[in-house]
UniProtKB/TrEMBL annotation:
Cross-referenced Pfam families: Abhydrolase_1 (PF00561)
PANTHER family: BIFUNCTIONAL LIPASE_ADENYLATE CYCLASE LIPJ, HYDROLASE, ALPHA/BETA FOLD FAMILY PROTEIN
Keyword terms of this UniProt record: Hydrolase
InterPro entries the UniProt entry points to: AB_hydrolase, AB_hydrolase_1, AB_hydrolase_fold
GO molecular function: hydrolase activity
Residues in AB hydrolase-1 domain copies: 276-489
Protein name: Alpha/beta fold hydrolase
């Protein structure tokens, strides 16, 4: 391994990230400006090439803009452990080996104290390893056919990593009882009672034997935090033109509300388990009563919609806010949902306490595009109508790769399938046409609530200039730039954590 700590850290980041990384992003993550970041990056890559490109294989791929380690040419323990932790049919011996792999500090001696963004990314990844280790120990402890001695070992390991998980505590106590060690079981129960009480938590019910009753084992995605959030509740509201609109709430009802306007595309059930944006949704649901809905024409809402237009989008947001019984609330608008949110806030200044706009724009391409761009976009709409529902995802890739250029192959494949299951080819074209005619430029000056505009600096779908323009024209708006090229943030990227941090800080300000 290279002697340079930063070079080792760079190697670990490239291996675990899988997707191509922009050189500018790597420079910001690992080097300060006075250090000649581009020169330092070139030096580190020169040290990694002879290490990676061996046996006639080129594993380290680099051009003038991007750097990547080809994921198809290497085997990574981290990815194996994640796959095995999410599998239901793995043998006990395989899970035990996976736990041993996870029982080591990820990227040891690669910490960079002065690089806060890299530190946040590394902390997140180490947290994921810890959660995978918990998951493996839980599965082994809950295995009904394991020997009692093994059950006790894995229950104790589970409890060690998750000391305030009541099921882990119940399992550890039950395992000792099964071995006939009643006194040890009672002592552990008393110790846990004190710990839970001091932490302000309800004490576990020691009469429950989770080994006998079983606990569900469901796959997890790349998560920011795996603490359980309340299950979402889906309801339906009826529009004036007789459309059944699906909307959902998640999070404690006594938490402050946060409404997310609909954007391309959504499905309340499928995207709650998404490997892409569900981590942000789940995090928001821990602090807020999070409310979102499927736009007419997609998801769980009626697909057979007589009207799909900007005006119908605004009315649907009004319908959901009324159905949820909300008088005044913060509003989150993403992509074209930002324009819908702007119009709503301008129409109802007394109802919106805070306005958050991410990846937004004020005017669709029919108002701003050159004749050449118009022809190109209209051609895409024709391709969409003819190819959207086909098994070959190449047509839907037109959208996937511009929405999330740094997504992995698996993430793009998920998004391609998600799009196909979310709406019909006809409705996809109707949505694109509706988005093209959006124009709220004259409404920006009418916004009266505190507003924060967030935009990915290298967004390939909607350029950052659109976000800057929004912030410049909305009175007293705050602007936050994120180090990402994704129009839709991916849960695993550091920019996703920065987005959540900015939202939480902003919503704490007085309206």
């Amino acid at each position: 391994m290279p002697a340079s700590r930063k070079t080792r850290a760079l190697l670990g980041f490239l291996v675990l990230s899988e997707a191509p990384q922009r050189r500018d992003r790597l420079c910001d993550l690992f080097w300060d400006v006075p250090d000649d970041p581009r020169g330092a990056l070139r030096w580190s890559l020169s040290k990694l090439r002879p290490l990676m490109n061996t046996g006639g294989r080129t594993r380290l791929l680099a051009d003038r803009e991007r750097v990547q380690i080809d994921p198809g040419t290497i085997s990574v323990d981290f990815h194996k452990v994640r796959m095995q932790a999410n599998g239901e049919t793995e043998k006990a011996s395989t899970l035990e080996q996976a736990w041993e792999r996870a029982n080591h500090l990820l990227m040891e001696n690669c910490e960079l104290p002065n690089q806060s963004d890299f530190g946040a990314w590394l902390e997140h990844k180490r947290g994921e390893v810890s959660r995978l280790r918990i998951r493996l120990a839980r599965h082994l402890a809950m295995s009904g056919d394991a020997a009692p001695e093994n059950t006790e070992v894995w229950a104790e390991r589970w409890l060690m990593d998750a000391p305030f998980d009541p099921v882990a505590a119940q399992c550890a106590v039950a395992a000792k009882r099964r071995l006939g060690r009643q006194h040890e079981a009672e002592s552990l129960a008393e110790e846990m009672d004190r710990a839970f009480s001091e932490a302000g938590l309800d004490q576990p019910d020691w009469s429950v034997d989770p080994i006998a009753t079983g606990v569900s084992f469901t796959p997890i995605a790349h998560e920011l935090n795996t603490e359980e959030t309340p299950q979402q509740v889906v309801r339906f509201a009826q529009s004036e033109d007789d459309i059944s609109l699906a909307w959902a709430t998640v999070g404690k009802p006594d938490n402050p509300p946060l409404v997310k306007a609909a954007n391309w595309l959504s499905h309340l059930e499928l995207d709650w388990e998404a490997p892409i944006w569900s981590p942000q949704f789940r995090e928001l649901a821990k602090s807020y009563h999070f409310i979102r809905y499927d736009e007419r024409g997609c998801g769980l809402s009626d697909w057979d919609a007589p009207e799909i237009s900007f005006e119908s989008f605004v009315k649907d947001l009004e319908l959901v806010a009324d159905a949820a019984g909300l008088e005044r609330f913060p509003l989150l608008g993403i992509s074209q949902g930002a324009a819908v949110s702007i119009e709503f806030a301008a129409r109802h200044p007394d109802r919106v306490s805070h306005l958050i706009l991410f990846g937004g724009y004020a005017a669709g391409w029919r108002h701003t595009a050159s004749p050449e761009e118009v022809r190109e976009r209209e051609a895409v709409m024709v391709l969409t109508e003819t190819g959207w529902g086909r098994a070959n995802p190449s047509y839907r890739h037109l959208f996937s790769q511009t929405f999330m250029p740094s997504a992995t192959a698996d993430e793009l494949a998920w998004f391609d399938e998600f799009q196909a299951r979310t709406t019909s080819p006809e409705n996809a074209v109707r949505f694109l046409e509706a988005f093209s005619t959006i124009d709220v430029r004259e409404r920006l000056k009418d916004i009266r609530c505190p507003t924060m505009v967030i935009h990915s600096r290298n967004d390939l779908r909607i350029p950052m200039s659109s976000g800057r323009s929004l912030a410049a024209q909305i009175p007293n708006a705050e602007f936050v730039g994120l180090e990402s090229e994704n129009h839709l943030l991916i849960g695993r990227e550091p920019a996703s954590m920065e987005f959540l941090k900015a939202v939480r800080r902003f919503l704490q300000t007085e309206a």
